[in-house]
Amino acid sequence: MPAKGKHRRPKSPRFSRSIAIAGTGGAALALPLMGATGAHAATPASAVSSAPQKAAAAAPDAAEKASTKTYAVKAGDSLSKIAGDQNVSGGWKKLYDDNRTVIGGDPALIHPGLKLTLGGKAASPAAKSSGTSTQTTKTAPAKPAAASGYTLPVQGATIGTSYKTAGSMWSSGYHTGVDFVVPTGTSIKSVAAGTVVSAGWGGAYGNEVIVRHADGQYSQYGHMSQLSVSTGQTVTGGQQLGLSGATGNVTGPHLHFEIRTTPNYGSDVDPVAYLRAHGVTVG
């Protein structure tokens, strides 16, 4: 007879949170059971739509575009005048900074027809041409300079008083240059590359610029309303020197143009013959 004593109640088997799967060798592989919440994985943050963020980022760009406008430079304009007339915040310096890519290195060198952006930075020429559109726009070809690098000091002008015209109104007894009849504010160009040896008030010539060229000759431009260069500056052929006007001893707006062998009055030579010798058609 078995000994008396307390019998322990057999323990019921514990169920672990795994199930046994028989392997080919009879061994069991325990796999964890997935909880109820495991069947619903959390939505990744990257799957959330980014449309509102894109819209918010685009809003400042749209606002900036809406606040910008384009201004076409007119005869007689300067950056300070434009900034004042158009109420540009930051004045002419901000206007120049925003349009440096189209104006270039000299803020005084603006010419009629130049497009400036007001209220934002202008796109660089490279950026404007980087699009994939194949549409092209036809533009009128610019009048090329002569193969020698020389050009007319002003385009589309008629000659008024010719060289060597006699008259008591001139201290030398004759006209020392040639007059191109143009309205005030017309762009005046250097006829060739050179160095500015004088830029300022020239007495009877009003505001004048004198440029020394590689051949040792000097070109002189008188009666200008505004100067775009300064003494000592290097210029290229066709670069703007200033705007025409009626300063000094004149009866009306025009450009007085001379070619000299020295920078001084009285060393004049025929300017029309000089330009023609360099391949430039005059009149």
Topology:
Blueprint: E1 18-22, E2 28-32, H1 51-67, E3 69-72, H2 79-85, H3 91-98, H4 100-103, E4 115-118, H5 125-128, E5 158-159, E6 178-181, E7 187-189, E8 194-201, E9 207-213, E10 218-224, E11 226-227, E12 234-235, E13 240-243, E14 255-260, E15 268-269, H6 271-277
Antiparallel strand pairs: 1-2, 3-4, 5-6, 6-14, 7-13, 8-9, 8-12, 9-10, 10-14, 11-13, 14-15
Helix pairs in contact: 2-3
Helical content class? 10-25%
Shape: elongated
Q: Could you name the CATH homologous superfamily of the domain at 158-277?
A: Glucose Permease (Domain IIA)
Distance between the termini: 146 Å
- CATH third-level topology of the domain at 158-277: Glucose Permease (Domain IIA)
Written as H for each helix and E for each strand, in order along the chain, the element string is EEHEHHHEHEEEEEEEEEEEH
CATH architecture of the domain at 158-277: Distorted Sandwich
Catalogue the unreliable spans: 15-48, 125-142
Number of helices: 6
Top-tier CATH class of the domain at 158-277: Mainly Beta
- Whole-number radius of gyration? 40 Å
* Mean pLDDT, all residues: 75
The main β sheet shows up as: 8 strands, antiparallel
* SS class: alpha+beta
Query: How many extended strands?
Result: 15
| Quaternary organisation of the protein chains | single chain
| Portion in strands | 15-25%
